[in-house]
Amino acid sequence: MGAVTRLISVISGGIGLIFTIFLVFNVLEKSPGDEKMQKLSKAIQVGAKSFIIAEYRILFIVLALLAVFLWKISSHSMAISFLMGSIFSALAGYFGLSISTRANSRTTYGATKSLKDALTISFNGGAVMGMTVVSLGLIGLGGVFFLFDGNVEIMSGYAMGASFTALFARVGGGIFTKAADIGADLVGKVEANIPEDDPRNPAVIADNVGDNVGDVAGMGADLYESYVGSIFSASVLGGIDYSVKGSIFPFFVASSGLILSILGIILVNLFIKRSDNVEPQKALDFGTYITSFFQAIAVIVLSKIILGSFKPALIAILGMMVGILIGTVTEYYTSKKPIDDLAKSAPSGPAPLIINGLALGMESTLLPVLFIGISIVLSFKLYGLYGISIAALGMLSTLGITLSIDAYGPIADNAGGIAEMAQLDPHVREITDKLDTVGNTTAAIGKGFAIGSAALTALALFASYTQAVNISVVDLNHANIFVALLAGAMLPFLFSSLVLKAVGKAANLMVEEVRRQFKEIVGLIDGKAEPNYGKCVKIATSGALKHMILPSLIAIIAPILTYLLLGKEAVAGMLAGATVCGVMLAIFMANSGGAWDNAKKTIESGELGGKGSLSHKASIVGDTVGDPLKDTAGPSINILIKLMSIVSIVIIPILEVFLS
Hints:
Elements: H1 2-28, H2 35-73, H3 76-111, H4 115-147, H5 155-191, H6 204-274, H7 280-307, H8 311-333, H9 336-343, H10 350-363, H11 366-396, H12 399-421, H13 426-468, H14 479-520, H15 533-547, H16 549-566, H17 568-604, H18 614-659
Helix pairs in contact: 1-4, 1-6, 2-3, 2-6, 2-15, 3-4, 3-5, 3-6, 3-12, 4-6, 4-12, 5-6, 5-14, 5-15, 5-18, 6-7, 6-11, 6-12, 6-13, 6-15, 6-18, 7-8, 8-11, 8-13, 9-17, 10-17, 10-18, 11-13, 12-13, 13-17, 13-18, 14-15, 14-16, 14-17, 14-18, 16-17, 16-18, 17-18
């Protein structure tokens, strides 16, 4: 029965890939625009491709070393599974990035015709990322099962590989995008007083490349890791508590979510096509809600047939609802009244704006924690530890369409940049700005969703760790465990410090380069000469690659060092401290950064003096401070806490045997 289930997951993943190919042809058959638009899009493509190839070159060296390590202390099966998880995650990022950087100019050209055309192209471009992630995730996990005769433990190697690639993608992509963004904003907007996406700005192409490597490839790898981790942990815990049926139920839930995400994507396209005056936000919300509705029905049926109870279905639906609620809270704190209030502090200068933004981010942790806490308590009461893993899986079961909507944002953002740089009619920029505004909202919601899913997935992985090393109680009265708890709580701060310093160092180099070009290239500021875009791309690339390795290694070193010094129970304490502290810090940074960003956009729309005013300059400072918080450090913490958990699951049991 288990073999048949994994076969179903592979078949579902295959159907997803076939649909993805259809989406790819649908996007690529659209016109990429005139010669100037194609030239700009090509520059973004080349920059993104050169960065990700350079990043993967370093990544694969590290992966090879880790695979040899796993081969020596465990088995060749674990090493191969680890490499499969890594490579599939890398492939998902590469394919999604390839299409997003081709969909941008096509979206711009679509905007010269109508909002409908532009929305359809950008959404379908994002859907390639969404469907690639879930399809390869299911194919990979099912493939590992077949290759290694149903050994569920070997699946942990696959999850670890996915996690490690995700951390590199998130940290490297985040450093790249924010170094470029800060250089473009501080010198271009503040010092040179030129608009955003102005072609005279040497960092503008690097900024557009960063949107793709950070928010497409990085976000895709992040959620790929959560998706794989939730299926793995649910399958392991289900197998322990409910035998084969408990182990296969997560695969059926994920498979139905994939198929229904395809249906949701099709329905969104029909909704857009048949609407007279389509509202992008309504179209995307329609896709989310209709897919979730059908998935709820599917989970109810699967729960009754496979496990003979409706309780698992209730838990999965609860997880889906919590994901939507966390997204709603994130949307509230990064838009609407809180942003209006935050923007009103800008006329007093950057300091009050930053203080109020920090306070807003801290306040925004309350409701997500409340929702996550309620879901954990109810899930545990209904179905024990297995219930918690099902809640995490339920939240991620419709990832196909959720990630499609999130990945749409960078495409729309790039489309606006190309419209500005190609000096198209202002009406085109109005359409792309409308898409971009919705994209900012979906990006903020996506970050909230990623944090919520990370919290539940990390807790499910924590439960899997305690099962793997036979721990029944984590006693905080024990000195070693309490010290490990404190150390775990410290790690997200240390990790964030390293990442933020990396952004700062790379941004310094970017600022100096942009200033140099404005000073030395005669006629650049007057629009009579072209900047050297490639130099800025190289600076962002080298800065990201140089500084991404040390933060990434923390997740591997910390659990092993804790085990060797304090014992396996202390590792559980460390994971608990890192998860609790990491979730709070991630929510705080993501929402503070998003709030500063949208406060700036509120002022740029004409409020409180508009562009060029003192309020606007203060908001740019706030946005610049918030950028690495919301797009680099905050999202990367999600992966840190999950990777430490999966490393503990894989390595600690092996070390116990090896050292005994």
